[in-house]
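[recover] target loaded
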C-alpha cells in the first residue's frame, strides 16, 4: 500500500505521535527520556521548528510542532534516526525502535479551539494512564511533559527551545505567575471532571474520524482548512513530475520569504508580538495596514496574509482591504501616526 502524502508548508502545525515497535517501550529509564529531549532540542535547532507541547510515555510520545519551513519529514527522519542510534548504543541493542510510521495530523493551529483541544489532549495523557493528577502535587508530579517543564515554570527556568506563548494565548492566558497557575489549575479541573476520558474529544455523529480527528484523522480543523490543505497536497504531488510547477512553487517560496521579512519588520515597528496578533481581531487597523502593504508590495496570497497576521480568513482580508480602499478616508488620513510608522517599510 502506498504511503499517504505528508502535506508540508510554511507555518504548518502538526500533532506528531510515535509508538515503540510492537508497542514495546521506547524509554527504559529517565536517562533515555533526557536523551530524547536533547535529541528533540537538536532537531529543533536544525529545523527551526516551534515546539509547543510534548509528553513522553513509556512506549510512545506526543508532540505539537510548528514548521516555519516546510520540513516536517526531514526533521522527523533525523529525530527518530538519531534517537534510535543513541538508545541502541546505550543499551547495546540493535534494530528498529519505533513501530510503523510516525503519525502526523495536520492541525489548524490558527484556531484557538483546535489548538487548545490538542494541548489538553497531550497534557492529559498521564492522567488517562493513571500516573499523574491524583497525588498531592497534581499534574506537576509528572516531570516528562511540557506542562511541568515549561507551562508551569517561568522564562528563566524554562528550556530555551520550548514555546509557550501560543499555548497560553489559546486559553486567553499570559506568561505570568498568575497566568501559568491558572493554566495548570484549569487542566487539573478538567481531568477531575472527565476522569479516565480526560482530554479525549468525542467523535461527533456523521463525522468520519479517518479524516478529521486529533488522533486518527489526517487533519484536525475545519472543513475550509481541510480543503486548503488538500489543494496544497495536490500541488506537492504535481510538482514532483512537473518542473515548471516546481519552479513556480520555488518562486512563491521566495515571495513568501520576502513577505515574511516585511511582516517581521512591521510587527517590530509596531511592537506587536505573537500574543497580540492572536488577541487582536481581524479588523484591527494595524493588521489591516500591514495586509494592505503586503498586497501592494508582494505577490503572496490573501490566505497567506490571513494566516500570518491571524486575520481569520482570506475572505476577511479581502473584505477589510476593500473597506480600506472604498470606504471613508485613506489610512494616511484616518491613522496618520500608523501610516507614518509603516511608510518606510511599505512605500
Amino acid at each position: 500500500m502506498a504511503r499517504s502524502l505528508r502535506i508540508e508548508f510554511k507555518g504548518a502545525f502538526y500533532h506528531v505521535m510515535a509508538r515503540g515497535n510492537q508497542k514495546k517501550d521506547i524509554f527504559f529509564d529517565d536517562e533515555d527520556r533526557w536523551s530524547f529531549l536533547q535529541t528533540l532540542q537538536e532537531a529543533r535547532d536544525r529545523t527551526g521548528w516551534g515546539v509547543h507541547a510534548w509528553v513522553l510515555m513509556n512506549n510512545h510520545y506526543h508532540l505539537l510542532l510548528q514548521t516555519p519551513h516546510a520540513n516536517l519529514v526531514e526533521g522527523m527522519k533525523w529525530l527518530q534516526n538519531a534517537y534510535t542510534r543513541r538508545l541502541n548504543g546505550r543499551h547495546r541493542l540493535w534494530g528498529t525502535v519505533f513501530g510503523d510510521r510516525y503519525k502526523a495530523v495536520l492541525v489548524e493551529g490558527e484556531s484557538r479551539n483546535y489548538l487548545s483541544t490538542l494541548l489538553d489532549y497531550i497534557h492529559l495523557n498521564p492522567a488517562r494512564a493513571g500516573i499523574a493528577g491524583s497525588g498531592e502535587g497534581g499534574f506537576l508530579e509528572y516531570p516528562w511533559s511540557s506542562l511541568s517543564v515549561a507551562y508551569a515554570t517561568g522564562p528563566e527556568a524554562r528550556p530555551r527551545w520550548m514555546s509557550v506563548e501560543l499555548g497560553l494565548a489559546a486559553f486567553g492566558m499570559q506568561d505570568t505567575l498568575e497566568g501559568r497557575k491558572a493554566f495548570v489549575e484549569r487542566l487539573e479541573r478538567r481531568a477531575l471532571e472527565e476522569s479516565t476520558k480526560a482530554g479525549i474529544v468525542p467523535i461527533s455523529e456523521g463525522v468520519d474520524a479517518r479524516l478529521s480527528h486529533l488522533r486518527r484523522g489526517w487533519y484536525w480543523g475545519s472543513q475550509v482548512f481541510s480543503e486548503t490543505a488538500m489543494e496544497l497536497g495536490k500541488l506537492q504531488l504535481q510538482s514532483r513530475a512537473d518542473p515548471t510547477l516546481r519552479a513556480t512553487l520555488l518562486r512563491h517560496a521566495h515571495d513568501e520569504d520576502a513577505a515574511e521579512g516585511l511582516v517581521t519588520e512591521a510587527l517590530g515597528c509596531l511592537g506587536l508580538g505573537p500574543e497580540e496578533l492572536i488577541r487582536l481581531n481581524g479588523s484591527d487597523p494595524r493588521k489591516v495596514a500591514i495586509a494592505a502593504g503586503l498586497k501592494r508590495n508582494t505577490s503572496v496570497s490573501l490566505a497567506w496574509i490571513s494566516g500570518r497576521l491571524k486575520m481569520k480568513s482570506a475572505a476577511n482580508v479581502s473584505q477589510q482591504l476593500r473597506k480600506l480602499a472604498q470606504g471613508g478616508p485613506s489610512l494616511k488620513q484616518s491613522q496618520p501616526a500608523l501610516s507614518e510608522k509603516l511608510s518606510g517599510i511599505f512605500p
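[recover] notes: Strands lie at 12-19, 50-56, 60-67, 103-107, 219-220.
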